[in-house]
Design brief:
Radius of gyration: 38 Å
Largest sheet: 5 strands, antiparallel
Oligomer: single chain
CATH superfamily of one domain: Ribosomal protein S6/Translation elongation factor EF1B
Order of helices and strands: HHHHHEEEHEHE
Strand content: 5-15%
CATH topology of one domain: Alpha-Beta Plaits
Number of strands: 5
Helix content: 40-55%
Number of helices: 7
Shape: elongated
Amino acid sequence: MTWIKRNLFFVIGAVIAVGLLAAAGVYDYKNWQRNNAALDSLNQTYVALQRLNSQNPSPGNDKIDNIRAARDQEQQLREWIQQTGQYFQPIPPVPNSTNGAITDAKFAAARDHTLNQLQVEAGNVSITLPPQYSFSFEAERTSVKFAPGSLASLAQQLGEVKLICELLYAAKINSFDGIRRVRVSDDDVSGPQSDYLDKTAVTNDLAVFVPYEVTFRCFSQDLAAVLSSFASSPYGFIVKNINMQPAAGVTTTSSSPAGPQAMNGFDYQSAYPSPRPAPGPAGRPAATAGRGGLQTVLDEQLLSITLDVEIVKLLPRN
């Protein structure tokens, strides 16, 4: 004890030195652990970098920044989707209720009006229709009550069928033989098979693809007008398949007064004259004999056309 008193400053300095050495040891140990963790992280990053550089395409290097290029391309793709959205406008349903509520009475009234309108428009441009044709809505033709939960889908299909028919009418086809759609209602089970497709709508990450099949008769220039109408439409039509054959031997049944006249008591015969008869295989443009006996260059035949059409409905963007 006497020695400690005589060497008090030495003892205090020694204690302080030991404390500092212990603190330095702890500090060095922690730094050593941090250095090891940083080295492990660096090694993992280096391995990941080597793996990415070995891929094709790679992230790039100091001269080529593939990551930046990918981001620029993603932005360009988003801008392209924004621009092309104007060609995939949603087709308005019939009836197009503003508040989204469609009742049985509203749909029945819209159905009668739309089917009558399609009959009248066909007569205006002398297009032949099957008698009493319901445009694939035979199962719902006279109904006033519809399967629960089906009104929205039926209204959407009625709007789509109306638009397809009007595009064909605008192309001045000779006759409209029929349209087929997918079943969307329990009422469709009782309908004629000729009204429906054995297909369903297909959905992917971007859109819903709804198939239709239309059959009509026309000449080749009218078919070109039909395809042009679908291509220029803002409603996103895709013609998937064209089945074309001569219309020889195909019987054309015109819309007689017994057909549309039975709808709502409207006298179509007096309002609209009988449609023009579709020319048969012998219905060709007459060749005018000119000086020197010119030969016929164009020998046109009436064609029976079946189109597989899909309507593209874009999904809401998040």
